[in-house]
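User: Could you check the structure of this?
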Amino acid sequence: MAGGAALEAEAEGAGDARSPSYATTVMARFARNRFAMFGGRAVLALVLLATIAPVLALNQPFYWNAGQGPELPWLAALFNRLLFENAIDLLFNLLLVAALPAALVIRIVRRWRPGVSLGRAWLGASALVGALFVCASIEAVGSLKNPLHFTERVVNYRSERERLAVLGVEPSAWFPLVPYSYRETDPQSSLRGPSTEHWLGTDAEGRDVFCRMLYGTRISLTIGLVAVSIYVTIGTILGALAGYFGGWVDNLISRLVEIMITFPSFFLILTLAALIQDRSIFHVMLIIGLTSWTGVARLVRAEFLRQKGLDYVQAALALGLSPRRVIFGHILPNAIAPALVAATFGVATAILTESSLSFLGVGDLSVASWGETLSAGRVQQKAWLVLAPGAAIFFVVTIFNLVGEGVRDALDPKLRR
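Assistant: Sure, the predicted structure tokens are below.
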């Protein structure tokens, strides 16, 4: 009897045990790849570095007091269009400002409601960040030149401190680690080599190269994520329609893909970028996204052709489900793996493409692009202007390729164990 009871208890325990989900299994396989984990941690570190860039390098002090009362120029400078002209910088600065309130929301929710999951706490924090972003967007629409109505006056506090020192006044000031801006020019400091004052030297206009490299991280990451999101969305939709419906729909989309791939992709991107008179970083993102979707479309089409004949799809059709629900609710979740792998590798390709466009002078010249710094180094024949952006581009492309290989191996059913 005792043995029978033990067997029954063991059977019940086995019945209660749940097998890990597909996502959990994929993450576990990804975590076993040391190179992929290194790449993933490096990407997260780059995102953090891009977010806190103004904390590390900015020509506005955190605190300033020259005898006329304390001031906080750094906080106001985060949304000053004379310092941060590009919308990408404003978005990252908004995330930086919202990070502390979001962390406080998570802390308070977890403390007052211990039973609330971390996911719900993150959802509340994300709602707060979203609300701040919406408020900032409304203010931006109301005042396009000056979102959040901060002053557009820029004070050179280093020169001001030197001027006051001559008058015998020593102001109290707390500057960031590197007290320069990536847009601040100084002809007297033109083409200076690396030193304790300028860690990576200066360019021909006297701009600090370290600051330009740091803020260039924002541009590269945004280019990669946004451009890839655009072309993965286009390629997934067109590939799904071609693979599911077949017939004339498949023929039409396949001929469109064949027409697109007859043009060398980089030269097509270069031509379209050169045709735009006033280019911005958003034009570059859009051009890369609209010209790079063919590979994803072919991968998704092939997966749909394989999946639509399986039993679960036939069962969904027998139940009378609409084509939209069958495509996006049933087949696509099972056919998205190749697109995810292509997207991961595509981030590195998009970053390299943007750097190449900036190197050739057809990018957005108002942003701190690594390619533009590399081009300046070629023209000026200065080693620090070549090595710094070259090493940055090599490192970022390498870590995204490591992540892509890890995602590919983790999603490969042949490697499941």
